[in-house]
Recover the amino acids of this structure.
């Protein structure tokens, strides 16, 4: 028998999965930032551009709070780490609220 209604647990699982996808996109950005020059590959470029476009608005907020440490082209950006920390806390709070 097919269930006709979506339970709160189903919605909580879906929201949790969205958080996980966003965390993966941020990790893609972090790993890609350590590679100085990415070889041109249209598929890889599409994935990286998507990760940049989706995560930039969120991460730019934290970059304004904590500027990169260091100078020149070797600045260490702490924004993604703070962003991930806030994202993990938000995921825990929101999913627990939805699940009840």
């Amino acid at each position: 028998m097919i269930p006709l209604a979506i339970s709160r647990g189903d919605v909580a699982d879906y929201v949790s999965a969205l958080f996980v996808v966003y965390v993966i996109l941020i990790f893609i950005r972090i790993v890609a930032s350590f590679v100085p020059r990415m070889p041109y590959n249209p598929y890889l470029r599409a994935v990286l551009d998507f990760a940049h476009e989706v995560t930039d608005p969120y991460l730019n907020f934290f970059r304004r709070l904590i500027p990169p440490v260091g100078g020149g082209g070797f600045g260490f950006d702490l924004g993604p780490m703070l962003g991930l920390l806030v994202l993990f806390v938000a995921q825990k709070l929101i999913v627990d609220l939805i699940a009840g």
